[in-house]
Amino acid sequence: MPEHPLHGAELAVPVDASDHTLGPEHAPVVVVEYGDFDCPTCKQAAPTVRLLLERFASRGRVAFRHFPLEQAHPHALLAAEAAESAGEQGKFWEMHDLLFANQDRLAVRHLHSYAERLGLDMARFTAGMDDHVYLQRIREHQDGGRRSRVRGTPGFLVNGRIQDVSFGLERLFDAVGAAQKR
User: Fold this and answer.
1) Which CATH number is 20-181's, of 1.10.630.10, 1.10.1040.10, 1.25.40.10, 3.40.30.10?
2) I need a surface site. Which of 4, 70, 128, 147 has the fewest CB within 10 A?
3) How far is CA 38 from the centre of its chain?
4) 3-state secondary structure of 34
């Protein structure tokens, strides 16, 4: 049987302290998600990722990286910038959850209302958004995703190896389970 073209793809940019992560720092299994806040499939995957963390509590860590598909998802880039701006104030995951929960409302005015709801310093948030302070970081995530052979969202890598979830997210659980047994 021929090998799948993505089999063996490696994570081009290792997870480091600049990544937004959940789970223990030295977990034996690291899942990197390349996601898009305007992507319906990413929204569906978000609760699954949280469940994955619960199931593999001390053995799993998740990192979220931006991969906005701007042609298909017009609000994806600004939503990513809003998440980064919130992250600068220690509220990345709270903004992450709000953006997915309110995916049909990602216009600039909505992003500002989510920042207010999270109690962010609005002057800092607004300046970060207006000046596109986090755009370079998002572009670096996209580049790293492309070099890791991520083609769409959500794109997952388990311990540095791409995981095809096109036939369901249970494959992600299987891959994490197999990786933690190694």
Assistant:
1) 3.40.30.10
2) 4
3) 12
4) strand
